[in-house]
Design a protein that fits this description.
The complex is a heterodimer of chains A (376) and B (92).
Chain A (H helix, E strand, L loop, with lengths): L13 E5 L26 H14 L3 E5 L9 H11 L2 E6 L6 H10 L3 E5 L5 H8 L4 H13 L4 E7 L7 H11 L3 E6 L4 H5 L1 H4 L3 H17 L5 E5 L19 E4 L5 E2 L20 H7 L1 H4 L17 H4 L4 H8 L15 H12 L6 H4 L5 H8 L1
Parallel strand pairs in A: 1-2, 1-8, 2-3, 3-4, 4-5, 5-6, 6-7
Antiparallel strand pairs in A: 8-9
Helix pairs in contact in A: 1-2, 2-3
Chain B lengths: L7 E4 L4 E5 L4 E6 L2 E5 L1 H8 L2 E5 H11 L6 H13 L3 E4 L2
Antiparallel strand pairs in B: 1-5, 1-6, 2-3, 3-4
The chains are: A alpha/beta (376), B alpha+beta (92).
Chain lengths: 376, 92
């Protein structure tokens, strides 16, 4: 385009392959879109094999098989084998529900590098309640089998108001299960989590306490188990450098073939995201309007445009700006410099004053019925 | 951690070291992450395969690059690699 600023386009490094939106669990903070039930028409095996090859030739090296629950796909080991041949480091991101020992061995043999298991809480009752499915015992059994067969294992626990008091026992559980890494992922409020925010967002005091415990375990477990702490951005002064910048590093392919710069981006209006059924990964990454939309900083408004920190955080998250302000080009309101920062403070106050006794009933579980109900 | 002349280093099974054509670099891959390596770091890690003592490793690299006096730099990097868990001391 004449007159437009020329932006150096980097290569994708991370490919997130969301193989399906089907999942046996119903976690109310699921990162899938609320309207997932209306996006059927899953890619077939041939499509995925082609996507893996094309993204690898573009430079992608980390590959996440995710969902929904990727184990639902019967062709998973075919995809894993192809990924290994191409030289990807492949990560299976799973609930572990429905993972048999035979399949653990089969995937290992196909070349799977690592398994990330999600656990919802450190106690059976709470885990099974949050997951919407009795799954705690099975998850623990599978975690032991994963280690038995020599995989590195990440245990991922999404942290929110209902389990944050378990921080200490969650970390003890992770050590007992033999996790190499534990990811303490404070809930990010998109999709289902945004819908359930009043029930999920802890108070500042709850965060401080939990974070202090996580920090003390970092020291205590040094050399044995690494702890990743995903910060609760509502309580930060500056936004996260979301996706390391739009269209710089991350490429998500949704179950229906839609290509996205992050897994939440399909909520953004007016972007006409490309589909791998119609375009090659190279065309999508380099030429599509959607992937170029928020590259560089010429799209920014004030206060980001003149901010000395804009090259560090890229103005934060486009999805969060849209969800909280109605306009994706605004500064992420998590930033204390944003004129919309009061919307984050309002959300914190709203969650803190949400009546306790109503919480249980009010949680909206992630399932196809609720997906149709809340997206119509 | 004290490094002994006869220490033997093994590469951690959690990590994978490979050449990335797109980046023209060796990289260390691990669950959901990647470290880009410079050439000398990669050369050291490639020799941490459980078959050499520290003395042999230093001698091999000095021979390969036709130079001497690499020991301090090599030990410095090995300390970092141990600290990060990329390699382990083989205690057999």
């Amino acid at each position: 385009m004449a007159g437009s600023e020329s932006i150096q386009i980097s290569k994708p490094r991370w490919l997130l392959a969301e193989l399906t939106y089907a999942c046996p669990l119903q976690c109310p903070y699921c990162s899938n879109p609320v309207d997932f039930a209306s996006h059927g028409n899953e890619l077939d095996t041939e499509d995925w094999l082609r996507v893996l090859s094309e993204a690898r030739s573009m430079g992608a090296v980390q590959l996440g098989f995710s969902g929904g629950e990727p184990l639902v796909r019967q062709d998973l080991s075919v995809l894993v084998r192809h990924a290994r041949e191409l030289g990807y480091y492949s990560n299976l991101i799973t609930s572990a529900y429905g993972l048999s020992e035979d399949r653990i061995v089969e995937l290992k043999e196909a070349g799977l590098d690592h398994i990330q298991v999600s656990i919802q809480a450190s106690s059976r009752d709470l885990n099974d309640h949050i997951a919407g499915t009795a799954s705690f015992d099975k998850k623990c059994e599978v975690a032991h089998q994963i280690k038995k067969h020599g995989y590195p294992m990440v245990l991922c626990v999404v942290i929110h108001k209902q389990n944050i008091h378990q921080m200490e026992s969650i970390l003890d559980m992770a050590a007992e299960l033999g996790a190499d890494y534990v990811e303490l992922a404070n809930t990010q409020y998109y999709g289902w989590a945004h819908l359930n925010r009043d029930n999920l967002l802890p108070t500042r005091e709850e965060f401080r306490k939990a974070e202090a415990i996580a920090q003390s375990y970092k020291e205590k477990m040094k050399g044995r188990m690494k702890i990743y702490y995903v910060v609760p951005d509502y309580y930060e002064d500056r936004p996260k450098a979301c996706m390391n910048g739009w269209g710089t590093t991350f490429l998500t392919i949704a179950p229906d073939g839609m290509a996205l710069p992050c897994h939440s981006a399909r909520i953004l209006p007016g972007l006409a995201f490309p589909n791998v059924r119609q375009m090659s990964i190279r065309e999508i990454w380099e030429e599509s309007n959607a992937f170029n939309k928020f590259r560089g900083d010429s799209w920014m408004k004030e206060p980001c445009r003149s901010c000395p920190e804009k090259s560090r955080d890229f103005g934060g998250c486009r999805c969060q700006a849209y969800l909280l302000t109605g306009e994706a080009t605004n500064a992420d309101p998590v930033c204390s410099l944003s004129p919309d920062h009061d919307k984050v403070l309002d959300a914190i106050n709203s969650a803190a004053s949400h009546p306790q006794q109503q919480k249980e009933q009010a949680v909206i579980f992630r399932n196809p019925e609720n997906s149709r109900r809340f997206s119509s | 951690m004290a490094l002994d002349d006869n220490s033997i280093f093994c590469f951690s099974p959690i990590y994978r070291l490979q050449w990335e054509e797109a980046q023209q670099k060796d990289v260390l891959l691990y669950p959901e992450g990647m470290v880009e390596l410079n050439q000398s770091s990669a050369e050291i890690l490639k020799l941490c395969d459980g078959s050499r003592t520290l003395n042999e490793l230093v001698a091999e690299l000095e021979g390969k690059f036709s130079t001497s006096g690499l020991r301090t730099d090599i030990c410095e990097f090995i300390e970092i690699a141990l600290e990060n868990g990329w390699i382990r001391i083989n205690s057999d």
